[in-house]
## 1
Amino acid sequence: MPAVQETIDRVKAIDVDQYKYGFVTDIDSERGAKGLSEETVRFLSAKKDEPEWMTEWRLDALRRFQQMEEPDWARVSYPKIDFDELYYWASPKSVEGPKSLDEVDPELLATYEKLGIPLREQEVLAGVEPKNRVAVDAVFDSVSVVTTFKEELKKAGVIFCSISEAVREYPDLVRKYLGSVVPVTDNYYATLNSAVFSDGSFVYVPEGVRCPMELSTYFRINEQNTGQFERTLIIAEKGAYVSYLEGCTAPQRDENQLHAAVVELVALDDAEIKYSTVQNWFPGDKDGKGGIYNFVTKRGDCRGKNSKISWTQVETGSAITWKYPSCILRGENSRGEFYSIAVANGYQQIDSGTKMIHLGKNSSSRIISKGISAGKSQNTYRGLVSAHRKASNARNFTQCDSLLIGQDCGAHTVPYIESKNASAQFEHEATTSKISDDQMFYCLQRGLTEEEAVALIVNGFVKDVIQQLPMEFAVEAQKLISISLEGSVG
Amino acid sequence: MLEIKNLHARIAEDHTEILHGVDLTVNAGEVHAIMGPNGSGKSTLSYVLAGKDDYEVTEGEVLFNGRNMLDMSPDERAAAGMFLAFQYPIEIPGVATMEFLKTAMNAQRKARGEPQLSIPDFMKRVKEAAGFLNVSMDMLKRPLNVGFSGGEKKRAEILQMSLLEPKLCVLDETDSGLDIDALRIVSDGVNKLRGPDRAMVVITHYQRLLDHIVPDVVHVLSKGRIVKTGDKDLALELEKNGYADYVDAAA
């Protein structure tokens, strides 16, 4: 049928080059630590003025990493990464420890402005309702350049700073929790991260405190041939609540860039952590050249009774995504949630999902995953739901929906379900659908253009997940999805 | 308003010709009914007018207010004022009816270079039109056509028609699947839209719809051609004697 032929042609002509954040910031920067070695690790650690225990922790991870082999079970393919060709440290020259925004390179501020990230607190205060304020930690290449609203958060007892600062200022907390959710040897990329992590955010919300504003980290990779290895650690003490959002972009480059992050969340009794991600790394050009390799380990530990951890992710970027934000439901009555929208277009490959490990009694979890594939992309949902012997009355509900646009893409669903307790109840629902020619024609007949029609239908498809995002970001996420799919339907 | 001249059209996939030279002129302010047996090409005619690409026009032309409509894409035809009420309205999961209405109205306004509707203006229009068609607020919040009953689907079509204010309305078997009460509501909705600047083409199997929407002209379509044209009494005659006379005539 002509509709289908036209779709194929349009998909062939797909222009992924419209990536909006593909500019490079021309900034004086320092790059060092090429190749993966003990020397590199020591150099990194020294750069950050780290205490001896931290250096040793890193070196231990490096030694373990050198014994490990790259896993190949994910449904993604890419040329082997040469870790000796990478730089492990890149930093804007002028910003080694800025005391205030005035010391930050104006080019950098301009970059974040271009990205729509407000770093000047006054500006944030000027236009926006006080309750909608968002504190931002901006990470540029390997270093955190600025963290906003620090003082105000401190008044509430909340610590929000870069992980480097936390290692120096709050060593007891960091030592207690770092690596306690994702052990050093957890997996290949997590081990690599443990050895060479550059910067990231640290959040500590004390007992009974409800964090007074949204916290956010904004990651940007600017330098060439540089890996970004961020490390985030969030601790919610008893009865605490925090909502955290991370956003990511990178310039358009021909080479692939590596991003291997580790995020650890710890929720104690009655605590709640809501973690949202809007990931828009450069996905590669229309021929599949360049783009970010995104190998990320994210895990939350519902350590206390009645604790709750909720992951929401909108993934539209990266050439390769390998990511499974998970929950360990250790506490009684603990709850884990995973809401995901993964959009793949062009030559993008996504292998993503979640793990819900039920250890505690009456623990419950919910997984809503929406995968959209267009172009020549491959999109795999991979998820594990397991109940241990002691996890009586564990409950899970999983819904996995895939939407295909065009003829040359693929959607795959790989659920693993393991129950060692007879009282556990796990439900799994999955659907795969296409945007039908009839739906398109109906929308066009009402006056929508093809792009408007696709955007409308896709937004309907992802609605359940968009509703989970903090209000401020829901609209942004919707726009992002539309942009990612531009030109995908004929 | 609408001039169809010697229109030939076939199914794109297998080249089966369905329309073998349709001639039809509909002037502003007129309501024309097209009747005919199953397989006579009624629905095909409506799809060809709306620009569905499952069909190819091989001969003839269609002028809409003097413009060659066959050169326009479906969304351009819609923005120019062509509306098709579907026999089987399509489900759009996750998209609230209200949201769909707003998106469609603003898309057409944008195409015509008009400003977007303000929210209060939009709400006022929707409430008024929905009230007349007995469409509840609850129904407007549900995803478009998903889980709608036959009657709800048809009322939603007429609601869209009222709000989009088209110049040419083509109604494809709008009476199918309606009980007597729903038929009356839908017909009232359609009649309200009759006016000197608007033309309507009502496609139906049965005369009963034409008791409610009284046409100015009635055509009989058989085997892809218009074989008989008359006034509203023609519909009554067909009701009594069936299509047999005309089907044979066309053969």
Note: The radius of gyration of chain B is 18 Å.
## 2
Amino acid sequence: MRKIDPDTNRFRNIVRGKIRENLKQYVSQGELLARQGKKVVSVPLPQIDIPNFRFGESQQGGVGMGDGEEGEPIGGEGGPPGAEAGDQPGEHVIEVDVSLEELAEILGEELELPRIEPRGTESVKVEKDRYTGINRNGPESLRHFRRTFKAALRRQIASESYDPKNPKVIPIREDRRYRSWNTKQVPQSNAVIIYMMDVSGSMGNEQKDIVRIESFWLDTWLQSQYENIETRYIIHDAQAKLVDAHTFFHVRESGGTKISSAYNLAKELIQKEFSPVEWNIYPFHFSDGDNWGGDDTAQCIRLLQEDLIPASNVFCYGQVKSAYGSGQFIKDLREGVGKDEKVLVSEINSRDEILPSIKTFLGKGC
Amino acid sequence: MLKNRALTPEIEEWRQIIRQHAVDCGLDFFEVLYELVDYDEMNMIASYGGFPVRYPHWRWGMQFEELQKQYSYGLAKIYELVINNDPCYAYLMRCNPLVDQKLVMAHVYGHSDFFKNNSWFAHTNRKMVDTISNHAVRIRRHIDTQGQNAVEEFIDVCLSLENLIDPHQPYFTAGESKSEETLDQARNEAQGVRFSTKPYMEEFVNPAEVLAREKEELLNKIDESELFPDEPEKDVLNFLLHHGQLRRWQRDVLSIIRDEAYYFAPQGMTKIMNEGWASYWHSNMMTQSIIDSSELIDYADHHSGTLGSSPGVLNPYKVGIELFRDIKERWDTGRHGKEWESCEDVHGKKDWDRAEDQGLKKIYEVRRTHNDITFIDEFLTPEFCDQHKMFTYKYDRQTGKYILDGREFSSIKTAFLDQLSNCGRPRIQVQDGNYGNRGELLLKHIWSGTPLKLDYATRTLENLYKLWGRPVSLETIVEGKTKILSYNGSNHAEQASA
């Protein structure tokens, strides 16, 4: 432990506190999405610095050095040229890197989400390599330096070629030691998230943004709960297609809506790739709720009851309000399968309702 | 785990050589203790402001994370770290190549000499390493009794006002505030104006009842005119320390923050000189005797790295070293004084050499007596500005960009001095400790042409309120009008000044 660690922890706690305080704002503005790296998110934190009396940043003149004619702009884009390099704290908003796990934890604390008890942990085993032993053979990249020299020293002492006054230890081929590994079977929990979205004409950009923000947080939380997570994306209008994440969030189609097509595709996907015995399955469906007709809705309910719901941990439906209002489907769902406690539905009328919707979906802990 | 921070034999050997060179150059320094640290430790020490132990506070952690991130992305690397203390402590980065270690060691001897001899450092505590760890102990004790959150929040409040000190204060004994005694004396001496006259006219020219009335008026005036404080107080922290509504532990914390602020103040006042001086000597020593030919390229690379400047930006290291070189040159050749200034012969000026050889003596004298402001004021010349392509810039409202304003010497100098005055911070003083006769506090921003950052100012007022305990106000100029910003514990107000 380093001397500074307590201070760093204090700082991280303050950061976490600030994020929790402003979580609603971060969620509804979707600010964090663009700042996502592989494992960390950089969070802009205003007001964490200590205020003091200082000059306003703009309009302040000063002295510089270098070429240029009168009236030419200097320095970088808009920013004042750092007159005293590295002396004054910058005027930018402080950004702090927060790992996705930490973010999930904050989300969990704030929404009081229960931890998920994965199904099927026992049945699925994966092989993992652990470096536990020492071997006389192996690749040079795994050579154990200290053990090699120890072996050499031992050999030299035994053969009386070691001179304490001139302590040179030279390993030969036989002295070399290498790290070796054992393969172990460890249980693993797998989960697959199947996002389905209605991309018919009535779903505009705002609606897709809401879905995108919500899916970011759902991903973040579920990723913190499972070791191995897969994500699949299905878009549908009158037909359904399996697409990648980019297409999912950006494609724009027109035409009618046949929700059963998506459910059919999800069913096939589960049958083909994700056996419910080995996988925890999370289908999320977002739509504005305007389905084609009563026939299709009835078919949807049948698909849910017979295939999707039994296979899944939970089935979540989010109805996003579009410019054309909110449709009938959520009502039909409530009537059809609403009694099943694995079915979770929520209405998202604006960005402010993303957070409660997440709570509805994940609040059950299964 | 305590790591071995001793120098390697090779570096130790060089330390002795460099030390001898420094002595030969005439540098007179506190003995320097070097420690070899890896980047983790270096960043940690740097986050603590150069000290091995500080009181617990989150901002060290924040700085540490920042430094770690910058280092691991290769954006920034700390080369040298030296503490003004007797003995001087300096840290070398373990992973640096030998040529860097030599450079840093030579550089540090320059700093140590500057700390010891520059008169602006004369009043700093030379046992600050010990003092600062004592501060840490005191604050930890308060944490034990008050709880970490309470103490840390209070430290935040103090830090928010940390820069409201008077860096010149150690150099004169501040005028004693008028004690009751002197007031009493004034009361005793108070009497009406007596006109000189013939004795028989006395009772007509100076009637007793008039004298009594005048005396009464004077006494009233003495009591009424009692300002608090008598003179505007520049050391706002000291004023708060003595008159703020603070509990004992809070007073102690505030005094610690104030002590540390005073310790660090001279470093802000002599940044250009201090760095210039150290760079001047490392470059002298390195190029004349220390490096061998194989290290030349690396040395030149790193030296230019620290002195180089991105286009348009003023690098204090660069200005400092060049000014010292310029001064040495001028006093070696006698390019100063009346005769030089009044000479109008261009060719004569170009070849001017009086062979005075006073350069070295002069720069030693300069490093003893000057600070950045007087340094620039006295030694910045039109030739120097010209040679180093200095210019002034201003903010252009139309484009929202900073543009080059001009290259005229007098405006460059004025802008430069402005930038340096009060270390680039607004001057703020206690104007009235009994504002409105309601025990409120009025601070005044001494206008220098630049407005305050208002959102910060209002947040700072909130912190000021926590120390003063009664409503607080700040007089400043907002958009060309004198305004009084106030905070009464729940609401902010802004009103035009009476």
Note: The beta strands of chain B are 32-37, 81-83, 88-93, 390-396, 401-406, 427-435, 440-446, 472-478, 481-487, 492-496.
